């Protein structure tokens, strides 16, 4: 074990419990009061994440054909961000960035499967004991922590499973490949398999998305009297396209899978509404902050029907805007300004430090993100003068950088740097690197320091010549 990282982990455990005397955003000064009162004053946190939902798949982001009334209402009651980014272009590394606060040049999991090492024939790379997650920071701050849906950061009997990464309770898929089926033979509850007997011999009775929502609602009820963190990484609308009903789109003149895609999103929208409803029912709505986003851009499909990426170039698996820009909505009644649209530029690496500041905890020292809590609370914050970084190494090392309004892309080592001015060219059509040599040079200098080599995704050689499937 890396002793430096181990010390970092112990540091987080030490400081996590010593936060009762801090002033919490939007709360009274709790200095000198009982720790129990301080804990009760901390907000609940619900983080809902769709899978492969495109930037323009929601009505509040311009979608005209898919019904998303509850999520649109979430945006009307909260803040909608137009320049927020996922952690990566595919599933597992994006979630690793979200959980660890480290971008893909530093985080443990940088692809859906490793080139070297990993676990099993798919070479899945799990989080290790020295990796500190959002859940661990919150657990040490006194939170109950739960997750339901798709994890993707640890195989069975590894250090990466949710219960060994800070979550008290967990229900769902460990492996993203198995999450492709919405009628699997089993799911995981904590460290035990839960057999779904109805999903056998051609019978499809237990739709996992519905089970995840039921778990989420039960978790909220059980923990309504103390602060909780609930992470809901739904699998919808990722293929494979399975759903009990394609209503309200059954009569639409679309391909069958397009109907399922739309029905999946509307089903998820219904369940976001159910989550908000239970917060109101339990009278904890005003002390609960809710995030909603997607794990990466939309897969390449349905152009001409839904246009899921809107004006953005590229799709899932690509480092252009369509592969990494995500819808992001944040709602907290009385704290986050309602109905506001923000152009603030931030990404998944910022979630851990933001939540840490929110609850008065301390972040690990070597994360890449920064707290954007001031932005969420409607205050002025300068987020422009920093670099945001992405990489995707399975076939060759693709890289992207956001700095001010500039977006740089390198599709393979040694290739020229592409440069786009997003303020003028949102669709990344006009490469202006030649016209802006000083900007390109500044970004090139940053790229030399942006990442560390990964033992699981070495860049100098690639022993696995097969391109990673888009999972």
Overview of the structural elements:
The chain has helices at about 5-15, 35-40, 70-75, 90-100, 135-140, 210-220, 255-280, 320-325, 350-360, 375, 435-445; strands at about 45-50, 80-85, 145-150, 170-175, 185-190, 190-195, 230-235, 290-295, 325-330, 340, 345, 385-390, 400-405, 405-410, 420. The protein is α/β, with parallel strands linked by helices. It has one domain (about 5-385): Alkaline Phosphatase, subunit A (3-Layer(aba) Sandwich), CATH 3.40.720.10. Helix 6 packs parallel to helix 7 (about 255-280).
Number of domains: 1
The rounded distance between the terminal residues' Cα atoms is: 30 Å
% residues in beta strands: 15-25%
Backbone structural class: alpha/beta
Relative helix content: 10-25%
The total strand number stands at 15
Tally of separate helices:
11
Second-tier CATH architecture: 3-Layer(aba) Sandwich
Order of helices and strands: HHEHEHHEEEEHEHEHEEEHHEEEEH
Apparent shape: globular
Task: Summarize the main sheet.
Answer: 11 strands, mixed
What is the fourth-level CATH superfamily?
A: Alkaline Phosphatase, subunit A
Can you tell me the CATH class? Alpha Beta
